[in-house]
Write a structure and sequence with these properties.
This protein is mainly beta and about 475 residues long. The protein contains two helices and 37 strands. The chain starts with about 35 loop residues before the first strand and ends with a strand.
Length: about 475
């Protein structure tokens, strides 16, 4: 146990963003979030997402920039990170993480989006000894590594590019507003480039970044909305508003295309995480579906819950819903079905490819719940540090294990704790917890206590104690 580490790790990045872009209050256009580590920008192939007013980013992008090594265990869907002597373990869908073996609880669990592990930004930064500073005005996150003070946030509008793009064409010859026709989309990933021929014949090349606002309108149907750089096409008429460096801040494109006959919409994918294991109380199931944009979606866990909401994310056509497993929930090989009502009124359904099993029946009130059993060390035995406590409990249950000591030093009574750990019983009900901290004197009595808890840390069973002697 590291006595110098703060005992309270601030969980989640408490962001309440008001972008005023016509999105629902619970959703924020995450591509506008800019992340800097020690003054340098961090680019993500999967843009940050915002869930329950918390920013989640791809884990590797920030962890590795902070000097941590990252490993992924697909069998248990667990992410392991190491930076110096600090170790972090997070499991997809579980609000419980472990920092140096100590349990920490996240208000937003890790989830898989676009094949990337997304984790709360502030948790991963501060866990690795970094400071985080959020500027709501510019949607900018500044992270300072090695425990240094974070630099003041950069006061820029949300559309400001980073890093500043080179002036092309030269700033003196680049008008702030140009109307013309798109000649070429030079690169469709951010930062990309857009080549425009102005109405007077001049050619301008603009840098386009993730913060650039791009709106594309069908002149025939009048349908308009935000799009990515890749959606722009040569021949589109366009008006570009740029800064002096030649970076586009706003792109308004128009094209003419007659509507095609309506075809049945489909849900192209449904993913459920975590997978490959039985879920227990406190686990957060995340369901992501892709289908027609601007619809209304829900998901159902057959035999357990129906009509759970799936708000559309900042990425049109991507719907994300979550369900926190409650004590008493129990289903085996249940289907997860997504129902999506398209803007045309068409109802579309799709079933996740793999069934889910939930067993939270082990977490029951103390009146009917049995206490965990400590199988080692035996009562009255002698132990030495480090020592491991093993036992059994209901499969999948959380067990809180604590080791306290008391003894005498000369004429004084000494007492204290060797630590507390919260561990999970495996499918066979086995659990273990290792304690490395040593007391200031030898020959003290060590009392080991085990109790079953829920994901909030509340006791859900009587406790079991074993008295030993530390030699």
């Amino acid at each position: 146990m590291r006595s110098h580490r703060p005992q309270q790790v601030l969980i989640g990045l408490a962001l309440v963003l008001a972008l005023g872009v016509g999105l629902a209050a619970a959703q924020t256009s995450a591509p506008y979030v800019k992340v800097f580590v020690d003054g340098s920008p961090v680019y993500f192939d999967q843009p940050p997402v915002i869930a329950n007013a918390r920013v989640l980013v791809p884990l590797r992008g920030v962890f590795e920039r902070l000097g941590a090594t990252v490993a992924w265990d697909p069998a248990s869907q667990t992410v392991l990170a190491q930076r110096g002597t600090t170790s972090v373990s997070l499991r997809i869908g579980s609000p419980q993480a472990f920092v140096d073996g100590q349990a920490q609880f996240l208000d937003v669990p890790p989830m898989l989006v676009g094949g990337r592990t997304m984790v709360p930004l502030r948790f991963i930064s501060q866990t690795l000894g970094a400071n985080v500073n959020w500027d709501a005005a510019s949607y900018t996150v500044q992270i300072a590594s090695q425990g240094a003070a974070a630099p003041p946030p950069v006061s820029v509008p949300p559309s400001q590019a980073y890093p500043p793009a080179p002036a092309y064409p030269p700033a003196a010859s680049t008008p702030s507003i140009v109307s013309g026709t798109i000649v070429r989309v030079a690169a469709t990933t951010y930062p990309g480039q857009l080549v425009v021929q102005a109405s007077g014949g001049a050619i301008y090349t603009y840098n386009v970044v993730s913060g650039t606002t791009i709106i594309r309108t069908n002149a025939v149907t009048g349908v308009s909305g935000p799009v990515s750089l890749a959606a722009l096409q040569p021949g589109d008429t366009v008006q570009v508003t740029a800064d002096q460096s030649g970076t586009a801040q706003n792109v308004a494109a128009t094209f003419a295309q007659a509507p095609t006959p309506a075809s049945p919409g489909v849900i192209t994918s449904v993913t459920v995480t975590p997978t490959g294991r039985q879920l227990v109380a406190g686990d957060v199931m995340t369901v992501v579906a892709t289908g027609p944009a601007h619809g209304t979606a829900t998901f159902t866990i057959n035999g357990l819950r129906a009509g759970l909401p799936m708000p559309e994310s900042a990425q049109p056509g991507t719907y994300i819903g979550t369900y926190t497993v409650r004590p008493g929930d129990y289903v085996v090989n249940s289907s997860v079905v997504v129902s999506l009502t398209a803007p045309t009124g068409q109802l579309i359904t799709a079933t996740a490819p793999a069934p889910v099993s939930i067993n939270a029946s082990a977490l029951v009130p103390p009146a009917s719940g049995g206490a965990p059993i400590i199988t080692s060390p035996a009562a009255g035995s002698g132990i030495s540090t480090p020592f491991t406590v093993t036992g059994t409990a209901a499969p999948g249950s959380l067990v809180k294990v604590q080791a306290d000591y008391t003894g005498n030093l000369l004429l004084f009574n000494v007492h204290g704790t060797l630590g507390t750990q919260t561990v999970t019983a495996d499918a066979n009900g086995n659990w273990s917890a290792t304690f490395n901290q040593a007391p200031p004197v030898r020959g003290v009595n060590v009392t080991i206590t085990a109790v079953q808890v829920d994901y909030t840390g509340t006791a859900r069973s009587p406790s079991t104690t074993v008295d030993t002697t530390l030699q």
